[in-house]
Amino acid sequence: MARIVQKYGGTSVGDVDRIKNVANRVKVTRDAGHEVVVVVSARAGVTNELIAKAKAVCALPSEREMDQLLAIGEQETIALTAMALHGLGVPAVSYTGAQAGIFTDKVHTKAKIRTIDAKPLEKDLSAGNVIIVAGFQGIDDDGQVTTLGRGGSDLTAIALAAAIKADKCEIYTDVDGVYTADPRVVKDARKLEEISYDEMLELASLGSKVMQTRSVEFAAKYGVVFEVRSSFNQNPGTIVKQEVAYMEKVVVRGVAVDKDQAKVVVSNVADKPGTAARVFRALADANINVDMIVQNVGRGGLANLTFTVPLSEKDKAVHALAPALKDVGGEASFDEKIAKLSVVGVGMRTHSGVAAALFDALAKVGANLELISTSEIKISVVISKDKADEAARAVHAAFGLEQA
Ligand code: ADP
Ligand code: ASP
Ligand code: MG
Question: Which of 47, 51, 228, 312 maximizes ligand 2 atoms within 8 Å of its Cβ, making it the mutation to test the pocket?
């Protein structure tokens, strides 16, 4: 008997037939003699609909109320999944995040898990029940509902797997696994048998939304090996695990594109110590994730700062920057028509020439580079959004990623 955590994403529980499909799959696992904890997302589109409703009633909704609202989506699917299992004669109990003992910090809309008190859940599990846990949500010490950031059901699954010492953690989605690029954009993208935590982490944070970034971070920290698989077939998926020596032989593991970013140019700020600190402190205090920061050479006592923020945090950034710009002068402009394209691979640590090959491929499709940033195992560029898909295909081909 093994203890298995299975997470089913939004498309996998997208309607009642799909929820029944999930129940059938869970039953097969349980009938094989395993203990099963299931984590479900909201039905595909529901979280987005709820966000749109919030914005329709208030331009900058309170983040506490946002969490109250967004937690609804997963509450629908846990109950329906439990009922579908009852319909198959399988004992099952649904748990909200709070009932599952998922305690977080107080940062609404992107709370971090602090601890999990899984005792009640373990008791129900030992009694022979399948446990269905609402993904994406938790509770803070004051009993406030929190959510874990978009895609956060992945994190619920991985954190639970660590907390209950599961033997297996399976992330079921609408693709067979992790590919060398988004298979919806790059048709000849190839499924990877395995990938290291570091590479998965970079791909996720650079826009491959197949896994939530923080869930991969958590898995790496606690050594949770997991498999990304499809809920629509029985194909083997992709194993995500600690790096092993042979992984370095591949220079570029994958290409990621993030179209949900905005470029911010803060121009004509005072070119003196403390300016950047003032600007980025304001953004940090609003919990905004800033990336790809570039400052140009100052002229006439003035300088420009350029960086990217998630598109979903643009309005918050506008708001947060206003008082800072009163202090340091200058003005902010926003460009939403950009995309970030990145190549990722642990082999970059030991191979050279990746930047040149990347820039060549981008030049051939006429993509102008607006920003560039590098780390040990990735290179990212900001290009125009309407070139992004074509550029991803060109870069994928340039590195021969369709071949094993
Ligand atoms: P779920 O609702 O199951 O959590 P998501 O929509 O969050 O599913 O993630 C799955 C999607 O991620 C796929 O449909 C695919 O289009 C996209 N995706 C982006 N990059 C990749 C990649 N490198 N490999 C696989 N899927 C990817
Ligand atoms: N329902 C949430 C979202 O859409 C969490 C998830 O699907 O993982 O972001
Ligand atoms: Mg997801």
Answer: 47
Q: Does 179 sit in the ligand 1 pocket, CB within 6 Å?
A: yes
Question: Other CB atoms closer than 10 Å to residue 1's CB: what's the count?
Answer: 8
pLDDT, average across residues 201-223: 97
Q: Please give the domain boundaries of the chain with CATH numbers for all domains.
A: 3-174 (3.40.1160.10), 255-398 (3.30.2130.10)
pLDDT of 144-155, one tens digit each?
A: 999 999 999 999
Q: Is the CB of 9 under 6 A from ligand 1?
A: yes
pTM above 0.85, yes or no: yes
Rounded to whole angstroms, the Cα distance separating 316 from 108 reads 14
- Rounded to whole angstroms, how far apart are CA atoms 236 and 196? 17
Distance 110 CA to ligand 2 centre (A): 12
pLDDT for res 298: 84
Taking the CA atoms of residue 310, residue 314, residue 316 and residue 319 in that order, the dihedral angle to the nearest 10 degrees is 140
φ and ψ at 84, to 5 degrees?
-60, -35
Q: Whose CA is nearest to atom 4 of ligand 2?
A: 47
Burial class (CB within 10 angstroms; exposed 0-12, middle 13-18, buried 19+) of 88: middle
Nearest to 204 by CA among 155, 163, 249: 155
User: Could you tell me the distance, in angstroms and rounded to a whole number, from the CA of residue 323 to the centre of ligand 2?
Assistant: 33
Evaluate if residue 247 carries a pLDDT over 90. Answer: no
Mean pLDDT, range 75-98, rounded to an integer: 98
Q: Is the pLDDT of residue 245 over 90?
A: no
* DSSP bridge pairs for 145: 139
Q: Is the pLDDT of residue 248 over 90?
A: no
Q: Any bridge partners for residue 138, and if so which?
A: 146
Name the percent of the chain lying above pLDDT 70: 100
